[in-house]
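Journal club side-thread
Mid-discussion, someone asked how the predicted structure for our own chain would compare to the paper's figures. Pasting it here so we can look after the session.
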Amino acid sequence: VMRWRWRRIAVRAGMGGVLVWFLLVLEFRSTLPTAATSAVNAGGAGCFDARSAWHALRHGAVDRVEPFAAEGATSGKLKVWLAAGNTSLQALFKPLDASFSNLYTFQEVLAFHLDCLLHLRSTPPAVSRVVNGVPGVLILWLPNLYHRGSLFVYLSELIAVLSQADTAVAQRARSAQRLFDYLLANWDRKGNTFYLTDSEGKRSLVNIDNNHRFRPENLNSDREVFSLFPVSAPSCRLPRDTTQRLLALQANQRLSTQLYHSVLEHDDYAAVWSTGSAMFAVWSREHMPHVKLSERVLWITGTLEELDRLAARYTVFASHCLQIFGVQHVYGH
């Protein structure tokens, strides 16, 4: 009798294990990128075209504003409806509050401009604007998004390894996002992973919620790049165009300088965040008297002063991958 009872327990446990594995495989399939990019911007100079969503966000008239309430969302955010000519669109507004507890909000703008420099096409347009008298950032609202927390993401990546069902497209999509997050020192992606589904049913990673940063002192060793990018066969599936474009940008001029000039040319951050916000102007004069007014918002995030060093460390990682696995494995076709 005892033997039969243990057999029944073993059978049920086995059936439960099969069911759990089946559910995990379904979850894996739902988070497997099937497209290399989400194409939420045109990349390069096309990001700032007069027909682009960026242009509508920057110049469109505000039609309607409502409080944005979602599970896990911080307070103060607004959903905004805009009209620009024959174009209408929706956006999420992240404000700068009076306590300056969310100064990294501006990193959403830096993230978009960095994406455009690298032609990733996976970060929604973001512009500095004043809404209802409050300075902040407007970010293009994307429909057909779904979110996965860190547990699901880790499990999906584990299944990809165990089942050997991962694809080169998915590996390179994740690698491109890791590169993007590493350059921005964005530590919160695993807990804020978003996927976009297009009209053909293709899934892609999209870079949303880019205003989280490592503290600079946590990124001061060579070990950091290899902890985020272990030199392994899956991690060394690199996006050829993005990696080579990063190398070309570094060879031409400091990446931070190019990012700074892109923001300087295409964003109203100085007027919105500094001159247009008396509270910020007073605060920044007291705490950053040695920095020019037009540069205070950029430098207060700490992004630019870290960007070149992080880019150089990623270059070392890419070099190691090429030496160990070769061009065919790293870049593919």
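Post-session note: Strands lie at 61-67, 78-84, 87-95, 126-131, 134-140, 145-148, 193-197, 203-206.
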